[in-house]
Specification:
Layout (H helix, E strand, L loop, with lengths): L31 H9 L3 H11 L13 H5 L10 H13 L4 H10 L17 E5 L3 H12 L3 E6 L8 H4 L34 H4 L8 H11 L4 E5 L9 H6 L4 E4 L3 E4 L12 E3 H10 L17 E4 L3 H28 L7 H19 L5 H7 L3 E4 L8 H15 L3 E3 L3 E7 L5 E8 L2 E6 L2 E4 L3 E3 L13 E2 L2 E2 L1 E2 L5 E2 L14 E4 L5 E4 L11 H20 L9 H12 L1 E10 L2 E7 L1 H5 L6 E5 L7 E2 L2 E2 L5 E9 L4 E7 L16 E8 L10 E7 L2 H14 L3 E8 L8 H6 L3 E6 L13 E4 L2 H10 L14 E5 L2 H10 L13 E5 L16 E5 L6 E5 L5 E3 L5 H8 L3 H17 L8
Parallel strand pairs: 1-2, 1-4, 2-3, 4-20, 6-13, 7-8, 7-13, 8-9, 29-30, 29-33, 30-31, 31-32, 33-34
Antiparallel strand pairs: 5-14, 10-11, 11-12, 15-16, 17-18, 19-20, 21-22, 21-28, 22-27, 23-26, 23-28, 24-25, 26-27, 34-37, 35-36
Length: 890
């Protein structure tokens, strides 16, 4: 088995396909001929050993992942040799032997075929922070450990704990003895019941079930069992941990492997109407929240017909997964609806959608297996719409096999279509997509529109406060070992030189970048892994030149990180019949918090309570820090129980590890010496505690309007008083609140009415005049903030300064909250002067000008999963009532 020359000296001589794709062969320069030769001789261990020299993480490559080698294979008389299948089969042959996993694990560390590094090098005392645990990150971590370095890896995603006897690490991060694995079936899980473990980045949430994700657990164990390795999920670099924190905390190098970021937004009319999502939003919701699992309480609502806009492999995955998921979605919906047997308070539109789901589920239930695809297609099925021809699409030119498989699974492909508009129904829900096609317009019916129009590298770190990383176009700016800027080769899986350094500090320590962040390696899993293989010697070389003293006390170093980076429940308090406060010990998250920022909080699926048929694992909750105690490492988050995942907070137990990713978002601007109006609706008041205190500490005067629907909803009165110079307590329910301080006021009615009453003097003297307000900060429901925005130009206009600043903390739906990744939080803004629409990632900056926020669009975005959410709320209530008394909330 041969490929065209792959050495760097031959780089300029690579041939290209008719589509202009370079036939560079395997990005990892795997010894394909040699492993085939010994495999043909019946020597599977030798074949695996030869593969592992260049590709020790081969569990992440091979069948249904890559085919660069097939395209460059010279034996193509009829069909190219299926090298990826042979590679994966070789691994499986060994894994299926007794102790097969342990043999594979050994060959990744001790390998007699690896002449240059047959076994790990002696400890260097150098510590490296790897940011991101996708294909580039886990491959780089492996190579750096084999070079003798200590590696700590972080990822913003939730990473579920494994069984300690398998991983050697308990849920709190402590090292414990592990047991060798005799049979590979001990590690395998049924894919439809598998825990979405988070490890693997895009390999976990972006690659769909075309690939056996049990391989991710195998890769994880190759790293996690090693004592010079530690990993932490729910830690976002730039949020929880900053660049300066990393270097000041003892790391000698920081390697960025954070992958792709901002999805491309189609700026067309109704581009984010209800029913329209980014593909990254859909795939992450499907793969990470476990929405497709029948025991999950996650909500992800799609309707048929589905149109996927785009032509890359993400579009293919999105199309095949949406077709498969729709059947699971409606069948789960029907099963829960039948068991609940209750009337649900759906609106007329929601009831029509629910009846559609129920009818489709009953039809699928009655159908024979071979009839199911016909039913799905009769309801509109799934169509990929691409602006060029199929043969020009990235999915076809990069991996035509996946296109073939998608067509076999019933996906339709529509060519030459450029989207111009989303058509909506009378309720604002998508009903069709309008396209330009060869000088005419056509329309495709679509109740769900999934946008897979590409992504940008995740360079958001360059825009974090206090970071001074330079950019080169859409990528980070690379540098040489002297710190001088240089330009790496673009889109070259095998560049002549791996220019992976991006920043040299004054003390000689470096940062580096890999995978989709890098202009040479952007594009797919194997190129990302190739960047790690080609780039790790560069990292080791600059580390060897470092004059910093080496330290070998890794146990103390890792123990400190383990204590500081993990979040553990300290206390759960019920503040009102519907509001719960959770106090967590999370030292770094507490130290990094600034007023206005928030966190993503989740419990672990593996530790979650269960009732028959349901796992009570939360969706990611966006919760703001109410207060912090930096010295003790405590942080408080407060949530309103609304019949969803927030209801599970009361069931957390002291000592239970959880995920508290953040802080994220942008700190609220705290002006000095201004007069500021704070308007808090219900739970929004928890956000304003810290903002009000910070404003007063900066010398500003605060008029605080605290609004509630019911008198029983009020909580933390002392905190509100401490955050204000005067409080106006507003409540819809009479008789209203009695102020405790003589200068505070009370009003029965909504918050806008209360503001007008105070401003007009109807509530008596004004300790701080409303007409002196320089700034308004409103935090509450979308309806409440929209009402404040409108009132400023209506009933409140005569009482407000011209040119005052008005900000709302926008509660867009959120998922990853890692800033410009999944795009669920995208919020349209409309410039009041020009009428032009722009888009803002609310998890990057939640504080937005009230005059620009499109509150109608926000309401539509918040209702994306409305039908499912109402059913799920009743289902969760049913499940919680089934818990035994000793497991119920205090």
């Amino acid at each position: 088995m041969l490929e065209r020359p792959q050495g760097k000296a031959a780089r300029r001589g690579f041939r290209k396909t008719v589509f202009g794709v370079a036939l560079a062969g395997c990005p990892l320069e795997q010894k394909i001929s040699e492993f085939h030769m010994v495999k043909a001789r019946g020597e599977p261990l030798a074949a695996l050993g030869i593969i592992a020299v260049d590709n020790p993480m081969l569990a992440a490559t091979g069948h249904r992942i890559c085919n660069d080698c097939m395209k460059a294979c010279i034996y193509q008389k009829q069909e190219p040799v299926n090298i990826p299948q042979a590679e994966t089969r070789t691994l499986k042959d060994v894994l299926e032997l007794p102790w097969g996993f342990e043999i594979y694990s050994l060959l990744t560390r001790w390998n007699p075929f690896d002449i240059r590094r047959p076994y790990p090098k002696p400890a260097t005392g150098k510590r490296i922070l790897v940011v991101g645990l996708g294909p580039a990150g886990f491959t780089l971590a492996h190579h750096l450990m084999n070079d003798g370095h200590t590696v700590v890896a972080i990822d913003g995603l939730k990473i579920e704990p494994l069984e300690p006897s398998v991983s050697g690490v308990d849920p709190l991060g402590n090292r414990v003895p592990f047991e060798p694995i005799k049979e590979i079936r001990q590690l395998r899980e049924d894919l439809d019941r598998r825990v979405m473990a988070g490890f693997g980045g895009v390999a976990e949430y972006g690659i769909t079930v075309r690939w056996d994700k049990n391989f991710l657990k195998i890769i994880r164990l190759l790293l996690e069992r090693r004592r010079q390795f530690a990993m932490f999920g729910g830690v976002r670099f730039g949020g929880t941990l900053s660049v300066e924190d990393a270097f000041a905390g003892g790391f000698d190098h920081v390697a960025l492997c954070a992958g792709a970021g901002r999805p491309t937004v189609l700026e067309i009319p109704n581009g984010f109407a209800r029913g329209v999502r980014a593909a990254s939003d859909f795939l992450m919701a499907l793969q990470l929240t476990g929405a497709a699992k029948r025991e999950s309480i996650a909500n992800l609502q799609i309707r048929l017909p589905v149109v996927v806009v785009g032509g890359g492999l993400t579009a293919i995955d999105t199309a095949t997964e949406s077709l498969a998921y729709y059947a699971v979605q409606v069948e789960k919906f029907l099963a829960r609806y039948e068991q609940l047997g209750a009337d649900i308070s759906w609106s007329a539109e929601e009831r029509r959608i629910a009846e559609e789901f129920l009818a489709h589920a009953r039809a699928l239930r009655a159908a024979r297996p071979e009839e199911r695809l016909g039913l799905l297609k009769s309801w509109g099925g799934v169509t990929i719409a691409y602006r060029r021809r199929l043969v020009d699409s990235p999915s076809y030119t990069l991996n035509h096999e996946e296109v073939e498989k998608a067509l076999q699974e019933g996906i339709s492909f529509a060519e030459g279509l450029s989207p111009t508009r989303i058509e909506v129904d009378e309720h604002g829900h998508a009903r069709a997509v309008r396209f330009a096609a060869e000088g005419k317009e056509i329309e495709l019916p679509a109740r769900s529109v999934l946008i897979a129009a590409g992504t940008q590298p995740n360079t958001v770190l360059a825009r974090e406060e206090g970071v001074s990383l330079a950019l080169d176009g859409k990528y980070f700016q690379a540098c040489d070992e002297a710190g001088e800027p240089l330009k790496p080769e673009r889109h070259a899986a095998k560049p002549l030189r791996p220019d992976v350094l991006l920043h040299r500090r004054s003390d000689g320590r470096f940062m580096s970048f890999f995978g989709d962040l890098h202009p040479s390696y952007f594009g797919n899993v194997v190129k990302a892994m190739g960047s790690a293989k080609q780039g790790y010697p560069v990292v080791s070389r600059v580390l060897s030149k470092s004059a910093r003293a080496s330290s070998r006390d890794d146990a103390t170093f890792l123990a400190r990180l383990n204590r500081d980076l993990r979040a553990v429940v300290h206390e759960v308090r019920r503040l009102t019949p519907r509001i719960v406060e959770v106090v967590l010990r999370a030292p770094v998250a507490a130290r990094r918090f600034h007023p206005g920022q928030f966190y993503r909080m989740q419990n672990f699926e593996t530790l979650a309570q269960r009732v028959p048929g349901t796992t009570l694992a939360m969706e990611g909750l966006a919760l703001t820090g109410a207060w912090v105690d930096r010295e003790k490492g405590f942080i408080s988050v407060i949530a309103l129980e609304m019949g969803g995942s927030a209801d599970l907070l009361a069931y957390l137990r002291p000592g239970e590890p959880v995920v508290l990713m953040g802080p994220t978002g942008t700190p609220t601007e705290i002006p000095r010496g201004e007069n500021v109006v704070l308007a808090g609706g219900g739970l929004g008041n928890a956000v304003l505690f810290s903002i009000g205190r910070a404003l007063r500490a900066a010398g500003s005067k605060v008029i605080y309007f605290a609004g509630y629907k019911q008198m029983s909803d009020r909580y933390r009165i002392e905190d509100i008083e401490a955050s204000s110079d005067v409080v106006v307590w507003c409540c819809d329910e009479p008789p209203g609140f009695a102020p405790r301080r003589p200068h505070d006021r009370s009003f029965v009615g909504n918050i806008v009415q209360g503001m007008r009453a105070y401003a007009s003097g109807a509530l008596g003297t004004q300790p701080v005049p409303f007409t002196a307000a320089d700034r308004i900060i409103a935090i509450g429901s979308d309806g409440m903030m929209g009402a404040v925005a409108e009132a400023r130009h209506g009933v409140l206009k005569e009482y407000l300064k011209p040119g005052h600043v008005a900000i709302g903390s926008i509660n867009s739906p959120m998922q990853c909250m890692m800033k410009e990744i999944c795009a669920q939080c995208l919020q349209p803004h409309v410039d009041p002067q020009t009428g032009k629409t722009s888009y803002v990632f609310s998890c990057f900056n939640q504080d937005q000008p009230l005059d620009q926020v499109d509150f109608g669009a926000l309401a539509q975005r918040l209702a994306q999963n409305g039908v499912q959410e109402k059913l799920t709320a009743l289902w969760i209530w049913r499940c919680l009532n089934q818990l035994p008394p000793e497991r119920k909330a205090a």
